[in-house]
Amino acid sequence: MDVITALQSRYSVRAYLPEPLPDELIGEVFDLARLAQSGTNSQPWHIAVVSGEACDELRRRLCERFDSGDRGERDFPLPADPLPDALMDRRRACGYSYYETMGVERADREGRARIARKNFELFGAPHAAFFSMPRVLGVSSAVDVGILLQTVTLLMVERGIGSIAQGALAQYADTAREVADIPEGNGILFGMSFGYTDTDDVINTVRMPREPLEAVASFVS
Prior knowledge:
This protein is an alpha+beta fold. The chain is built from 8 helices and 4 strands, in the order H-H-E-H-H-H-E-H-E-H-E-H.
């Protein structure tokens, strides 16, 4: 598979088959991902993969906290100010697309909460990964970790593996640290659920549009 095909066929998978991936396949993906670029070759990242019984325990603990109403605490806090209108509109449209597909009305708070809970159920995936970096680092290093995430995602597409990047998995960073092997002094930026895609689940029929090039890029010559 070439890069163009991988980019065009990738989507965020929100329902998985319970069958785990072979350890060798997981190792191959993350070993190749080490080749991703980073500023001054600092390679500020760490990936902590959780599978099997550990993944089930992680899922249980995350859902327990979500169900209790605990909002958690992130290692790297979200911006305090609201998003610009255009970005907020895109975020809302994304959520509404999933609500509609799942037969949930916008006013149905309980239904929306059930969909939000799927993040902490890891969407039924048999594997999760946490991407972290030393807490002392700033935005430029976070960009490097984002590059690593995209590299992992495309490698997974090439190998028939579904995945979804989840900022929500950073919400309960302390719980993640109880199960996943996160280096001391590192903060979790985001997580990822991954595995074989359940192609029969209706939630995986949703595809998100992208803005036209002129809305996101400018060219001067």
